[in-house]
Amino acid sequence: MKIYSHDNLSLHRPLPYYSYGKMFEPLEIPERMTELLKAPAALGIDVTTAIDIGMAPILAVHDFGYVDFLKNGYHEWMALEEDLGAQVQTGIFVPYDNPAIGIMAKAAKYQADDSAPISEHSWTSIYWSAQTALGAAEALLNHSDDKDTHIQLCFSRPPGHHARKSAAGGFCYLNNAAIIAEHLRQKYAKIAIIDTDMHHGQGIQEIFYERSDVLYTSVHGSPVNFYPAVTGHEFEQGKGAGEGYNVNYPMPHGTDEAGFFTYVDKALDTVALFDADVIVHVLGFDVYESDPEALCSVSTEGFKTLAQKMVALGKPIIILVEGGYYLPKLNDNLQAFLSGLIIDE
Question: Which of helix, strand or coil describes residue 189?
């Protein structure tokens, strides 16, 4: 097993923001990385520092104008004579019929909601989050005979599964799962993405909705009055060539651990039927029973079970650690997951 990270993942620090009539403290904060990195250290597992694979795999998935906004938007925002605040953030979302003239219009075009602000060092973390995931993909592309590449885990901060082709939202900026799935297609015919984060990954769904070479299946809380609210229903099954290759398993709010695994097993059956060459697992610790975003109740021991089920598929797997906002248990929960991977190697 290999684990990838980079020091730059901790640089992105969103500031408190105003939404729904009140101020919110950000949940996706650098301290998450501090807690997560304790887990491999406690288990004596080395962490590989990601290397720079470059921009090409990112631009193979995301629009150029959007990536340029993520990279340069902060500096353009701060260059304004008017003080708009210390981070790029807008409550306006006008993605269509928007010529993107001026930084305020660009923000309105590319920020789908107010939970994905851009501050001084955001781009550095965003870029290296993608590079961390790409490191695992490159290892599999170039060293597939190495047993260590059969199971790989990447710290993906900020996370990515909500990021659309040209829009940030839900703490997400670059869609790391989609980027590495597309990158892996250089060598592998079929990629399966299984997403067990508490929230539906509408960005992944959008990017591959009309394709049959990348299966997307997601276990998540029902989107009825829950983020992302407008996607994640069972009837969303793909379009055109992709019809049937997008499979959602929305859980009723309040689902217990047994119910969670009932849905996970259905998703795993879907993945097994697809018979992918490589599996990408979007792992969210926000399904943990005490997480502020949880509408289900997975225990710490449950993450060990989840890991064992993933490995039992018998395919090369890249795990992206994305959601999870209850800091006191992130270390324990990741240790439990890693122990499931280690036992079954």
Answer: coil
- Given 12, 161, 162, 281, which residue is catalytic? 162
Q: What domains are there in the chain, each with its CATH number?
A: 2-63+121-343 (3.40.800.20)
Q: Report strand pairing: 278-283 vs 191-195.
A: parallel
Residue 221, strand partner residues: 251
pTM value is 0.96
Q: Exposed/middle/buried for 115, CB within 10 Å: 0-12, 13-18, 19+?
A: buried
Residue 281 designated active-site: no
Q: Are 166 and 211 within 8 A, CB to CB?
A: no
Q: Which two tokens stand for residue 294?
A: 């949880």
101-139: per-residue pLDDT in tens? 999 999 999 999 989 999 999 999 999 999 999 999 999
Q: b vs e for 74-87, b when ≥16 Cβ sit within 10 Å of the residue's Cβ?
A: bebbeeeeeeeeeb
